[in-house]
Each structure stands twice: as structure tokens, then as C-alpha cells.
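Q: I'm writing up a methods section and want to include an example of the input and output format. Could you take the sequence below and give the corresponding predicted C-alpha cells, formatted cleanly so I can copy it straight into the document?
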Amino acid sequence: MKKLALIGCGVIGDYHLNNLKQFEDIELVGFCDLIIARAQSFAKNAGCGKAFSCFIEMYDEVKPDMVFICIPPSSHGDIEFETIRRGIPFFVEKPVTLDADLAKELVRQISTKGLITAVGFQCRYDSINTAAKEFINNNRIIHIAGSRIGGIPDVPWWKNKFLSGGQLLEQTIHQMDILRYLLDDEPDKVYSVASRGYITQEEVPGYFTDDMSTTLITFNSGITCTMVTACYSTSISSWDNRMTFGSRNARMDYRLVTDITIYGVDGDKAEGLGGVVSGDGMQLTADGETGVIIKTTNDCSMECDRAFIDAVISGDGSKIRSSYADAWKSTAFCLACNESMATGLPVKVIY
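A: Here is the clean output for your methods example:
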């Protein structure tokens, strides 16, 4: 039985622990956090394993066969380098880093070592992706309009862009990653504009990040995309998050880890849209237009974690859908957006 350790006993670590407790072919041997009480609470929750405040001491004592690294974005580096040096396969939460040079060096060392890695882009394992990819393959996509709008997570480092990288990098990276995955295409250039002033220090003390950003993306294939992300929302009624993939005669609404709705295919063509073809017409959704709805039927988080564990047990990482090297590309995508926000200029995405 393979031994598994976990570093970072916060919210996202707990998210993974709830999955890991259900797997009977691994042994949870160690939990590490700078706050030892949190590591102790994880060991108690798991019903096994030992708590540590130093990951090196944990590695020396329990000698794990694999590790989950669930730490804030600004804390990456030493843990990964030591894990690679010891040849321990690792799963790391996104975003993998805020430092491009660090990520590139980690990619190099992982490749040299031939190490199995995975990153927490669980949305790639969603059951709806099969139908979404089929729609994209059968319909030439021209433009995508996407959004992720919500509130402020209850973790202290998130509201400081220096520590979190901002919402686009820390949260909306899921949308950016799934764009790459579904389109099987890479971004070429981005132009991002940030907005502040909706959330005040009185409302959220210590808040130093963007309230909202709007990004224009061009892909290598010529597809364009607009992506809006914001954390100003105080009500679920303020926005309906989705990505709409549009072609000339059909569209797909994609809602992360929820469902897709496809319009204009399989005889489901809306009536009354002729204005877009002739005249000056603004196209409006037809009255009574309905679409084909396909809902998520699996626990993609569980499948994401399971894919990594199976890869370590078998030695075959081919079923992992987001290795560190690939996840770095989604991180670079978002880092380019941050650079554009800072400079006010379009930025080419470079891996």
C-alpha cells in the first residue's frame, strides 16, 4: 500500500482530505502545516497519520510515496524543489506559482527526474467535457464570452494580490485552463484592464486587489474570447456565470462543473433570428428557444485525485489530464493577463 502525505492543512487541503479518506488502497501517513494544530486536526479527521510543522521532518520520518501540496500561491518553491530532489511524485494545487522563472525551473527538474505530477484542475475531469468537445469539433467556434463573478473567499491572503496573484490567477484560472483544454488551442495575446473602487477598506479591511478585470484573448487559431472576472458580488442574483461558445448557427453555454446547454443543433434551431442575416438586425434570443441540456454526472474532484494516485501506483501518468508542465501553461496565460493589467499593453503569452 502506497503512503501519502499532505502539506497545507487549510481549506483546500480539507477539500482533498475528504476525497483521500475514501480511498482504501493508500495509507495517510503525515500531515504538515506551519500551524501544528491544523495538522493535528487533519490527523484526527483522518483517523491516522502524524502531524508535523516541518515538511522535511515529515519526509524524513514517514517517507511518503506521494504527496499533496496545498499551499497559498506565494509559498511555492522550497517544498517542490525538495520533493523533486527526493523523487517523490506530487500533486499541487493551482496556481502552481506567481513566479514564471520558478515554474520553468520546476518544469525542467521534473522532466529531468521523470517524475509523475498532477495539478488541481479538476474541471478537466468533468463528464460534460465529452459533449462540449464534440460540439466544438463539429462547429467552428468564432468567439467565446466568459465570466466568473463572485465574492471574496474567507482566507486572509486572498485579498492581497501580492500574495494571491489576484482573482483571475487564483480562481478564474479554472476557466482559462478549461478554454485551453476544450479548444485544444493555445492563447497568443491578451489585453487585460483592471478596475477597483467598488470594494472599500471599510467593507473589507486589508483588501488590496482588483475588484474586476476584463480580458480580450486571441488564440493561435484566430478564435477570440472575452473573459470578465470580479469579486464584488454580494448576491447570487448579481451575475450568471458561464462561457458561451458561439459559431455561425449554433452556440453552447458552458457552466463549470454544472452543465452545458447547446442551441441550434439536432433540429433545435431557434425561430425568428432572420434579422442577423438581412437588414441592420440585432439578433435576439427567440421566444421559447430551448436547448439540449447535458448535466455533470460525476465527481470530477474525486476523479482528479484518483487519477494521480492511480498513476503513482501503476507508474503510468498518461491518464493525468493536467501535469505540472501543462498546468504551468495555464498559469503563464494568467500571469500574462496580470502583466497586461500592470502595463496597460497587450502581452504575448510565452511558455
